[in-house]
Specification:
Chain A: Keywords: Membrane, Transmembrane, Transmembrane helix. The complex is a heterodimer. Chain A is mainly alpha-helical. Chain A contains six helices and no strands. In chain B, the strands form two sheets. In chain B, strands 1-2-5-4-3-12 form a six-stranded antiparallel beta barrel.
């Protein structure tokens, strides 16, 4: 029981730390590297490691933090991130069972796509006019997030024995 | 059975989200949100120092000299604008309203915390809110009068500033040319700033200075926005456009001032 509580507290602060790190990266990295989505990479790593459905609640907490640091209506990031992770978790459970680096990188790409589809839906609902330039930004995010995730998994797989579950 | 479980999970999560959003609306989650915001804001404090450090390391020689020259250039531009505005007012016997001369505004200083998380917006978060008298729409300036954006969201101790290069930013502006052409300064997804709806028959040239026109709500006349870099004039269109170089470096903003209404 105590172990479970300590684990929840640990992940709670780890999520806050990763969120702060993502704010730093988006503020400090030059364009277009600022578009790397560390939150998605982190959550998919956890999914690859433990395969637990609790990842969706992690996405929920990230969504809350993002909404607190957004000028958009509260709830847009919570809904987009949580529901997109729920979909990716189901895909992981049903299709991506081999836990290869390629499968995890594909899940990152799918997560970015699902997340941004929901996000665009809500910002259109919020009154933002959709332009083709949006795709340009999301294209960078998709490209750099997937490449970073791929490299990160590859390195983790190479250097840390625990990550040997990734083939 | 699996489908039933998936549907149940989906609806559970959906209702939790609805509850959290609803609770947030009525401020019932402040006891959780405020400590979270405190932790994150506290952690973001060094962010500007780090950014400024990188900015300085990008310039290998005589950084101080370059900064001094930039400051002198900005001061000269401001002086030039002030002289032009005062001359114009005298000539026109102060027929037009001038928000600055009326002196209905005061300033609040603020520190930039970070960018917001919305990738489609060029918005920044500052550490002052409605407790400091800030309201939505208030103009945000640097260096005593260079407009960088306006307030779009206010909380108790924080606010969000939409920068002039944001794709949703639109500010009424005047070109300091012979005709004092007016138009709309609009952002382009953080990549550039354009001035649109400039009448086709008016003469504008690269280098012309652009100031706020005072026609936008709450933004006074005379705040420097930038210079014209390129003129985009097509004979078959009723208006011409101009690409603008903002006077302030919008990538490196550390301290800002918000022009607020006097209580």
């Amino acid at each position: 029981m105590l172990k479970s509580i300590l684990r929840i507290i640990f992940y709670f602060f780890l999520i806050i730390f990763i969120f702060i790190l993502s704010l730093y990266s988006s503020f400090l990295l030059p364009y277009p590297f600022e578009n790397i989505n560390l939150v998605i990479i982190f959550l998919i790593i956890l999914l690859g490691l433990y395969g637990s459905g609790n990842i969706v609640w992690g996405a929920f907490l990230f969504g809350v933090l993002m909404d607190l640091y957004s000028e958009l209506y509260f709830g847009i990031f919570i809904f987009s991130l949580t529901i997109s992770f729920l979909l990716v978790y189901w895909l992981y459970y049903e299709f991506f069972t081999n836990k290869s680096v390629w499968a995890l990188a594909t899940m990152v790409a799918l997560e970015v796509i699902f997340f941004r589809i929901f996000y665009i839906f809500f910002i259109v609902f919020n009154g933002t006019k959709i332009k083709l330039t949006f795709l340009f930004y999301f294209g960078w995010e998709l490209l750099f997030t997937t490449i970073t995730a791929f490299l990160l998994y590859f390195l983790l797989n190479k250097f840390f024995t625990k990550f040997k579950i990734l083939k | 059975m699996v489908t039933k479980s998936k549907t149940a999970t989906f609806f559970t999560i959906f209702f939790v989200i609805i509850f959290v959003v609803g609770f947030n609306y009525f401020h019932w989650l402040d006891f959780v949100e405020k400590p979270l915001i405190f932790i994150v804001d506290w952690s973001l404090k060094p962010i500007n120092k780090i950014k400024l450090y990188f900015k300085k390391t990008e310039q290998p020689l005589t950084t101080d000299d370059i900064n001094t020259l930039e400051q002198i250039k900005e001061k000269n531009q401001l002086s030039e604008i002030n002289v032009q505005i005062l001359t114009e007012e005298n000539l026109e016997l102060k027929k037009q309203l001038n928000f600055f001369v009326q002196n209905n505004f005061e300033h609040v200083g603020a520190v930039v915390l970070s960018r917001t998380v919305n990738p489609l917006a060029t918005t920044i978060m500052i550490d002052k809110g409605n407790k400091d008298g800030i309201q939505e729409g208030d103009p945000v300036v640097v260096n005593n009068g260079i407009l960088i954006g306006k307030i779009i969201k206010v909380e108790d101790n924080r606010s969000v500033v939409r920068l002039i290069n944001d794709n949703n930013s639109a500010i009424g502006a005047t070109i300091m040319n012979r005709e004092r052409s007016i138009g709309l300064v609009e952002g382009g997804y953080g990549l550039g700033v354009r001035m649109n709806y400039i009448p086709q028959n008016e003469v504008i040239t690269p280098g012309d200075i652009i100031i706020s026109s005072g026609l936008s709500d709450t933004i006074p006349r005379g705040l420097v926005i930038g210079n014209i870099e390129v003129v985009d004039k097509k004979p078959n269109e009723p208006f011409q456009q101009a690409v603008i170089t903002p006077t302030a470096d919008l990538s490196y903003i550390n301290l800002v001032s918000i022009i607020v209404h006097k209580k």
